[in-house]
Amino acid sequence: MPQLRLALNQIDSHVGDIAANAEAVVHWTRHSAEQGAHLVAFPEMVLTGYPVEDLALRESFVDASRDALRDLAARLAAEGFGELPVVVGYLDRSEQVARYGQPAGSPQNAAAVLHRGGVALRFAKHHLPNYGVFDEFRYFVPGDTLPVVRVHGVDVALAICEDLWQEGGRVPAARSAGAGLLISVNASPYERNKDDVRLELVRKRAQEAGCTLAYLAMTGGQDELVFDGDSIVVDRNGEVVARAPQFTEGCVLVDLELPAAAAEPVEGTVDDGLRIDRVVLSEEPVPVYSPEVTGGYADRLEDDEEVYSALVVGLRAYVAKNGFRSVLIGLSGGIDSALVAAVACDAVGAANVYGISMPSKYSSDHSKGDAADLARRTGLNFRTVPIEPMFDAYMGSLGLTGLAEENLQSRLRGTMLMAVSNQEGHLVLAPGNKSELAVGYSTLYGDSVGAYGPIKDVYKSDVFRLARWRNRAAEERGQVPPIPENSIAKPPSAELRPGQVDTDSLPDYEVLDAVLALYVDRDQGLEQIVAAGYDPELVARTLRMVDTAEYKRRQYPPGTKISAKGFGKDRRLPITNGWRERA
């Protein structure tokens, strides 16, 4: 059987920075060539970054992508890689009137095979996702071909991301076309537990395609999305040949033995009306060699480490890609700001993390001490600026009471953080968690102030668990646990009035989070949640809080998505909404 050394480049890309992305493709192609690769692949839309959202509708951006693809092909040849086929994802446009009524020139999520200084083959994603964070029907028109490229006597079929996640289309078409290898290039965002789903999907599709399947994924972060890598190669029986690390950029090399291409290949139209678009690059098999690389099987991260890693990668990408070098956090001594600080130190380094303790007359000594202890443990930059003089000035002018008085303290802290950010150039991080955002237990223009919310999609009970995991991981490495034990053990409190604790206003977080998971993440109604065993009055009160807090959530900054339904593009409800769940 013919042999082929495949290089899957699991890399990050920066939306809109086409020049830097092209440079990365050249760098990793060079690396692949040095490792003896016969075929090289890069992720979905690697040249433009993903998702490009409404940039896809801008003609100048599409033109820039197409021009960069041609320039990239020429440059690869000029640097001596012209004989090495390279699969690259990019943004293209249709050349003819497409289905669904879109005119000629409509954008396409596309990929191309670069060879000998030119574009040997182009194709567009066939299945377009339109759920969760995806709006691809808004932007793209689908491809209607099955691209097959012959490399050293092996027919290699090509697909893009959703082509694997949906039934039909290019997977059965690859079998009909007699492909020996199916490569899918992807930019599939991370979600908790998705790695298990992905593995089973790839195994199933390989068996359906009747050939070895290589699933190449992107890594890094883009706004609220994180890409976790986890590229996978399986044989035609679904057995794993190689699996890449999670959240790590790099090149996965794997030596494959694959069926020789048929002397009289299938032509014409196959499954789902896909027309086979076949290009022959090289017929001659590579000289027989002893396989040296198997890709390996990277250890899987355990659940808490996986989620924590996603938070770190998401924050690091947001800070770096938006041109910041440092972040600023209000440190209350509580668990939320402590976890955010730990994530920030791991993401950008403690020397680039700035924390401010802003005590009021209601702040406890232990909270002030816990904030200082966190700074000592992590090595972040720390200062204390009391808000009491500012608070007294406002109160003397306005005479506020009750909730208005409580919220004033939070808003003074938000104003201070933004003032320091303007003065010193730090990116402010908002410490709110998913539980608080769900029920509106936050102050607009106060603790919601910031440019990014690292734990926006993390329920409060998970905040505690991640904090414990991070401390345990530090101990196992012989390091100082970053989060003070007292911040984990003490009852959560906003400390805006004497003796205040969160349970004055909210149910116990374990119960609250379970109800929220059913209502927010799974869209279950009141009757269904009560039937699951929860107190009817508690459920009704919780759902009312969620429904009336939509206006707050719309004004909260973006944050790393780790669940199947985070607040943002995943969950789109009207602010003005008269519907209420009733028993």
Report on the architecture of this protein.
This protein has helices at residues 18-34, 59-81, 136-139, 162-165, 170-176, 194-209, 303-321, 335-348, 365-378, 388-398, 402-424, 434-439, 460-476, 485-489, 509-521, 526-531, 536-548, 550-554, and strands at residues 3-10, 39-41, 86-93, 107-115, 118-124, 145-151, 154-160, 181-185, 212-216, 219-222, 225-228, 232-234, 240-243, 250-257, 275-280, 327-330, 353-357, 381-384, 427-428. By secondary structure, the chain is α/β, with parallel strands linked by helices. A seven-stranded mixed beta sheet has the order 13-12-9-8-7-6-15. The protein has a six-stranded mixed beta sheet with strand order 5-4-3-2-1-14. Strands 18-17-16-19 form a four-stranded parallel beta sheet, sandwiched between helices. The radius of gyration is 26 Å and the shape is elongated.
Q: Which key phrases capture this entry?
A:
alpha/beta
How would you concisely characterize the structure shown here?
With 583 residues, the protein is an alpha/beta fold. It is built from 18 helices and 19 strands. A hairpin with a 2-residue loop joins strand 10 and strand 11.
Rounded to the nearest angstrom, the radius of gyration is: 26 Å
Number of helices: 18
Structural class call reads alpha/beta
Beta percentage is 15-25%
Q: What is the terminal separation in angstroms?
A: 65 Å
The profile of the biggest β sheet is:
7 strands, mixed
Shape: elongated
